[in-house]
Amino acid sequence: MTNIIQIMELILRHFSNTFIILLELMGGIILIFGCLNIFYLFFFPAKKDFSTKLRIKLGRYTSLALEFFLAAEILKTVKIRDLTELYVIAAIIILRILMMFVVHWEMRFDFKELKDSVKKRHSEKRNQ
Predict the structure, then answer these.
(1) 85-115 burial by CB neighbour count: b if 16+ within 10 A, else e?
(2) 49-75 pLDDT, tens digit each
(3) What is the domain count for the chain?
């Protein structure tokens, strides 16, 4: 019976390592792609992509990438061997969650700014 449990633990550790690497890789790819996309749109705008829209788009990419990184950190809790590792992983998870809240807060502010500018342009067109 203990052999089966040990084998299952080895399989879980092996697959968790693979999934952790995949999740971190996907988060990194999303972040790099998002930054390159925003960089391209900043210098070669196809339409009126002003800075607020670009910040919102970058915030979305960053938020999605952070979700993948957070999922990888949660999977890392499977591999904890002692209490100090738990403290480190808990601190990393808390920091990433705080970063997500900051990104969402900034995006909410940018959405409000975008909404106000659209209302202003719409009212100016109506008055003309």
Answers:
(1) eeeebeeebeebeeebeebeebbeebeeeee
(2) 677 788 888 888 998 998 899 888 888
(3) 1
